[in-house]
Amino acid sequence: MRLLLLVNSSASSVTARGRVVIQKALAADHDVTLAETSRRGHAARLARGAAGDGCDVVVVLGGDGTLNEAANGLAGTPCALAPLPGGSTNVFARTLGLPNDPIEATGDLLAALARSSIQPVGLGSVNGRYFLFHVGIGYDAAVVEQVERRSDLKRFLGHPLFVGCAISTWFRHYDRSRPRFAVHHSDGTLVDDGLFTVVLNTNPYTFLGNRPLDLIPEATLERGLGSVTLRSMSFPAIIRAAAAAFRGRHRLERLRFAVVRTDLDGLTVTGHGPFPYQVDGDHLGDIERLDIRHEPNVLRLVVTPKEVAASRR
Hints:
Structural class: alpha+beta
CATH architecture of the largest domain: Sandwich
Order of helices and strands: EHEHEHEHHEEEHHHEEEEEEHEEEH
Number of domains: 2
Helix content: 25-40%
Shape: globular
Distance between the termini: 29 Å
Number of helices: 10
């Protein structure tokens, strides 16, 4: 196969040695070209160019933001996407069952390529931009903004930085005194007093170390979107929501201040003034309206053979 190895050298877990090892491993059986991203949006352009040149697979070594850009460049083309974890959290790669070590994950990728384990999957879209695993609206996006302001610390602090920013955002950087937006679901239901919403194309929402935050088990690449909206951001509510997410098994939907919806074709979020949002961990600023849709079978994805993932458990 013809592969483009797309590398974000600034990502938290990417090293020069690791990049060389991965490139050599892929090149043993495939025709591999290397490209490095240099700015925001560059990965989308490189991936789109690779698809136009007849490349079979774009392998992305980077974080979730780089992976999102590549997916936007490849959606609707015959060229497939293959993730390798290179960031601090690697939500999408780990959701697919890949290990968090990029060299170990390369072995799984090679096994998938040898079996031509490629399948079409659905994505979400928000105001015309595709997302792989989630859109965060309100408090979640405000936390991501604070993390990005400290991006120079992300490589060294990782998850403790996210936890610290979540605490400081709750106290200082997000207005919890009033509802921020209304959520109109495609099933006809309305939540008009939202403070924090996550729209999921996959589950879990994220990882803290090796622990997944499990919001909607039904959210998979084969089904419609899921959404969780919190109507309270009091300290007891946040603690109960976090505990429910850690414990999983649909516990979040039992909370009276949480509204959970599954298998949605789409939803619309309208603000009571501007509100922040993020896409696959990339903060995109403030906005007053989001139109979110499920886009079935729009991306070809290299998936780990089930027997390989099962052998790791």
